[in-house]
Specification:
It is a single chain. The strands form two sheets. Strands 1-4-9-6-7 form a five-stranded mixed sheet. The longest helix has 4 residues, at 83-86. It has one helix at residues 83-86; strands at 3-8, 13-14, 18-21, 24-30, 39-45, 53-58, 62-69, 77-81, 91-97, 106-117. It starts with a strand and ends with a strand. With 120 residues, it is mostly beta strands.
């Protein structure tokens, strides 16, 4: 069973490093978004397990990206958020690590997350 850790997030920037233990999803919840706008997320993946892959999902139903390896050296990656994910004015982003891996217990390690409104 997957459990979650929830963090209160600013609508546009989270600059605090965060990690969650194995079998847990890191989640950020955004409220007060413009339902008519389009958004993208800029994320920096980091940590002491660079070969661990992460997956990002919006609102438990829109895949932002499948399991990908963290780039080396670490750098910002940008992904579009499908308009349907923010149509309600809210958004929950969930990061999951690869299932079934052992190790040191630090599964989802995210250094920065920016949620940005796209230029019209």
């Amino acid at each position: 069973m997957m459990t979650s850790r929830r963090l209160k997030a600013s609508p546009y920037l989270v600059a605090r490093p965060c990690r969650v233990p194995l079998r847990r999803a890191l989640q950020l919840r955004y409220t007060g978004l413009d339902p008519a706008a389009q958004y993208k997320v800029r994320v920096v993946y980091a940590g002491d397990s660079p070969r661990r892959k992460l997956r990002l999902v919006a609102n438990d139903s829109f895949e932002v990206h499948g399991f990908i390896a963290k780039p080396s050296p670490y750098r910002p990656l940008e992904f579009d958020i499908l308009p349907g994910a923010t149509a309600s004015g809210g958004l929950t982003l969930s990061w999951q690590g690869e299932p079934g891996l052992g190790g040191n217990g630090r599964n989802c390690q995210v250094s920065e997350v920016w949620l940005m409104k796209k230029a019209q």
